[in-house]
Amino acid sequence: MPSARETELLEAAYRYVLTHGLADVSLRPLAAAIGSSTRVLLYLFGSKDGLVRALLARARADELALLADIGAGPGMVARLWEWLAAPAHRPLLTLWLEAYARSLVEPDGPWAGFARATVEDWLEVLKASQPADVRETSAGLVQRTRDLALLRGALLDLLATGEVERVTAALSARD
User: Is the pTM of this model over 0.70?
Assistant: First the structure.
């Protein structure tokens, strides 16, 4: 169980990386910004990689908690898109994208497994939108994969352009 100080510094570091990104974070400026020292961060998290892993776990927990509020059943893809398109979620989603891409190009670093885990998380969330008799079928998995691909592509487009109306209209026009 983490100490109160570790939790406090992790939360402060998380707020910092939501604004500044994670890929090129340097311990010295991070420590100064959150009122700590590199020595304390290394003591609490073991290494910079340990801190990155803790921050990725924190971001994933935040994302899953927010997704849990989406609910289940019909219309879930539309509700997920509404959540993804909300300006308040942009920092988390930009961090998610950064970590997702890094885990693909640096599969042995602290990013290891992040992309795969997030795909599995989202497929599980999307499973709740399907009728019980479809959830465990190959057709159900194909539909969830398609929905995830559409949402992920739309998110990439939105983050690149900021064009909420155009991307939302495109998603609304699916089948």
Answer: yes
